[in-house]
Amino acid sequence: MGTTEKLACFLVETGYNNLPQEVVRVAKRAFLDGVGVALAGSQEEAGRIIAHHVKEQGGIKECRVLGNRWRVPAPAAALANGIMAHALDYDDYAPGWVAHPTAAILPAVLALGERGHISGKEALEAYVLGFEVGARAGYGAGRRHYEAGFHSTATLGTLGAAAASAKLLHLSVPETRMALGI
Hints:
182 residues; two-stranded antiparallel ribbon; 8 helices; 2 strands
């Protein structure tokens, strides 16, 4: 079994009840912190620009852009909320990743969560599993990845967001492998 298949099996088979309580406690704080820094970022120029941009694009009004009254399509909300979460650079930092994981993972969880009316437990489960997948990739890539010029928040964070999204969308193992591969 290859690495991607192992990760896909891990994502599909792991549920909220498998998560250590200390991990859930830390995840709750990171979740709240991520929302807080995104709200603060919504008041910055970059936050205002992206919020107005996604609003002007139109589409299905299904997800909230933090700090605003309007709704936009889920992918647009995730984009805007992610930019706002990183706008002030106050977001969390994971040394093993050499990245800011919550700015990448949380916006996807919020958007899919709002669209799918998921529970808080499902949101935390997806966030934790996305974080874990990104962390595993981060430890594998090491500082070499960052030192080679890659911004790990964008590269490894995307992998973490894909993992969290796959969990929220209840993808099968083959579908999860495809999502991680994309």
